[in-house]
Amino acid sequence: MKRRTLPSRSPVRYALAPVAVAVVGACLASAAQAQDKGLTLRPSLRLQEQLPADVRSQTPTFVSGQRIEGHTGESTTVEGEAELRRHDTVIRADRLSFDDGTREAHAEGNVLVNRSGDRFMGPELRLNVDTFKGYFDQPQFELLNNNGRGDAARMDFQDQDHSTAHQARYSTCPRVPGADWMPAWLVRANRIEFDNVEQVGTAYGGALEFKGVPILGAPYFTFPLSDERKSGLLPPAINLDNLSGFELTLPYYLNLAPNYDLTLFPTLMTKRGIDIGAEFRYLQPDYTGRLRGSFMPSDRLRGEDRWSYTLQHTQTLTNALNRLGGGGSSGLSLNLNRVSDDNYWRDFPRASATLTQRLLPSDAVLSWGRGPWSASAGVYTWQTLQDIETPITPPYDRLPSLGLNYGLSDLNWGGLSGRGAVSLYGEYTRFESDPLLTGQPNGERAMAVATISHRFQTPGWFIEPRARLHSTQYNFDQPLANGQRSASRAVPTVSLDSGLVFERDASYFGRAFLQTLEPRAYFTWTPYRDQSFLPNYDSAATDFNLATIYSDNVFTGNDRISDTRGVTLGVSSRLLDPGTGAEIVRLGIAQRYLLADQDVTLPGGTPVQERFSDVLLAARVQWTPRWLFDTTFQYNPSSNESVRTTVSARYTPGPYRVLSAAWRLQRGASEQFDIGWQWPLSGIFGRSPEAVPGQALGPGQWYGVGRVNYSVPDRKIVDLVAGFEYDAGCWIGRVVLERLQRSAASANQRILFQLEFTGFTRLGSNPLQTLRDNVPRYQYLREEINPPSRFQRYD
């Protein structure tokens, strides 16, 4: 074979494989066959990240450079701006040799390798371009998935997905050009193995350094190369609590399968002992759930064992029902919560996931539905955690509660316009609790509620008459005060709801609007039925607001049906953006007039004899997306004073900037101020930078964050969460003070300190959940964005 030399002043591209012609030809042939069959090929708008294995093996290899020498089918040497390119792999160097027989490339001088966006740079490389097996001397590297980077004395490539760095350094901090790389934090190890299949890095003989100081060392540890789950030891959590003392948690995560996992989190508390906790999560096509529990043997502060567990399980039973010959849809829901003692909520205020820490629900419910029919069967129990200083009356357990409902809507009554609706609901419930605490006998309640209505509606008005009959039968374990062991009640209700909608074009302050005027009248009549002798198992007073004032019953539950005989008149007006339909301003006022006294009350209550109710006023203004003002005002015309007032405002000028404030007054009961914020400190005295996708406002930013709830009558802070966050780019620091009121005289206090090494791990106590739960519209400084593409780092 004749040797040939191709000198050139400009780079020359040289194809080493003619397979590209065959691939293109196959594509053209497939397109021709598709046209013959009447099919249309649609181009994809996305670049393909990975090729199928059979296609990848046939992709051609191209080389280019200032001078190319070689023998066809044997070896090729390229000098001067040498480049070898094959699909997702690019090799550049001052000098490049390629053996076509062994498929091995040898690069020297300013070598750069880019494979699927991962870049390696150094003085010398030997690599098999087919198997990606070889080594790199003194490389620097940059990983695409998590923006990790580092350097090593040598990098060994085992295959396309596995490599080992010797005497390596690794971090996600950027590399400053022209300076010795000394990032804010790094992992220094004798050996780091990178596994791109499991997306995990394994360091041997390594230490985590922060600002040049080793803070965590181990002979062996792993770290993530992406956001995918992996088994291993999670970062320790450190907490300082005034009740439990110094707390150290060492969680271990077990990725058992793609659809279930297990987390173990033993915790050492210096004032208490060791608390052993675990959480198991599972996900199946027909069911999902979470089981969490903890056990502390011999708590030193209480002198007893402490434990808790919670189970949430949701399951669809439709497939199983169909296999049994049934129909419709069905499901099972479990929500179980229990703790060892009454003081658990006080000693572990953050352990409960329920909204009310002293009332722990446990429910098991079966449901079924098919067409207009639906049914449910469940048991509902409560664990009430009592406090001697502030005892509470426990709610009733329902053992069981069975319900059946039939409902039809969009009915046509003899050709009337509008739509009619009819429903029939039946329920049987067994109520049980401690009669010494409730002061009432346990018993059973069976009831039936029938409702019929019809809504006449046009774009400018609506009228909806409604009739309801509520029938109830009771049986008691013990006789009532009147000696009866059973009772019955039937209460009819009729109502008429009506309203008008006027619209007009309007302009205020130079801005065009669509303005509405919406008067509404609601009439309801429920005759008086003496219910004072009946026990109260589940009724309570509804909140008085602009929604409930247009209702026929001022009580929730089914043990009290109020004899409301009155008319509610109200009017609201809205300003709408004519282009988007967004509500800019909403104003409303309403008042109820009673035609007769309201004599049905809750136990211990007094009849309502005032003909005119309190006046409700509400206003909501969002003139721009930045500002939101909302207020409700309950005014008593007899005493000429407000009964309840809520005024709130929120200012959101941009991402990671929010300031909210609220004042809540309930005369004779409480008065509180509530302030919440998340704000960059650079924005206090100047202009903050614009948001960076996935990275808040960019590196070098301090943020203040918190929420304060202050009680005016008590002259003290009730709850407090306040602190600072610092975003350095490749690491985030957080310091948060949390104070939660336990009783009138005591509170739980703790300091949360955390270092987050971006894309690597977090050390310290995690305040993120606390911030999300307490700070309105809090935004996490690192948001998930689309996975990176290899074409973002294309050489």
From TrEMBL:
Major site of localization recorded for this protein: membrane
One term under GO cellular component: transporter complex
Pfam short name (any one): LptD
Signal peptide range: 1-34
Keywords, sorted A to Z: Cell outer membrane, Membrane, Signal
Coiled coil ranges: none
Domain of life: Bacteria
Chain ranges of the LptD C-terminal domain: 305-680
Residue intervals passing through the bilayer: none
Compartments where found: Cell outer membrane
Keyword Glycosyltransferase: no
GO biological process, any: Gram-negative-bacterium-type cell outer membrane assembly
Family label: Belongs to the LptD family.
HAMAP family, A to Z: LPS_assembly_LptD (MF_01411)
Assembly notes: Component of the lipopolysaccharide transport and assembly complex. Interacts with LptE and LptA.
Biological function: Together with LptE, is involved in the assembly of lipopolysaccharide (LPS) at the surface of the outer membrane.
Protein name: LPS-assembly protein LptD
Organism: Hydrogenophaga borbori
